[in-house]
Amino acid sequence: MAIRRIRQLGDPVLRARCQPVERPASAAVRLVADDLRDTLKAAKKQYGMGRALAAPQIGAPVRVVVVDVEGAKQRMTMVNPEVTDVGSEDFEVWDDCFSFPDLLVRVNRAYRITVSYLDLRGKPHSLECVGPMAELLQHEIDHLDGILALDRAAGNDPFAYRDEWAKLHDPQERYSPPRLREAPDEALVSSS
Question: What is the pTM for the complete model shown?
Fold first, then answer.
């Protein structure tokens, strides 16, 4: 168990698609999970934010995520997590990330999702998520695929330094209300 360096924007490991874990109960996977948990705890103390950390953020290109949401008292290690269902609503989020901690990025995310994953014993689980937890898990699973919130920037002026954003906005403005997802324009789809 150790506190590892969180990889920052520009580090190629953040762009790698992570390998699936074949043996969730192995000592190697448990070590990655322990290091993620210790690193997340230290990062939360350093930055005053954060709810989860994905393995590539500490340089381990495997599909493992650790979640620690204090208010919800939700702590879990997810091995090979994947989104298995998406609801019909989206919402906008001012997303943040330990890999670029001073920046917020406005993204669109599904408001409701179902995630399947294995625990550290290899037992399968399914979790239905709404709102901030749905956004969080989409963000972390994106990390496992080498996708950063920057890649999902949406709307006009989608970037803000955290301190500047905080001067102009209330914390509740980080999440917009959910709205029905728009169907693709048929004329655009058929002409492609």
Answer: 0.93
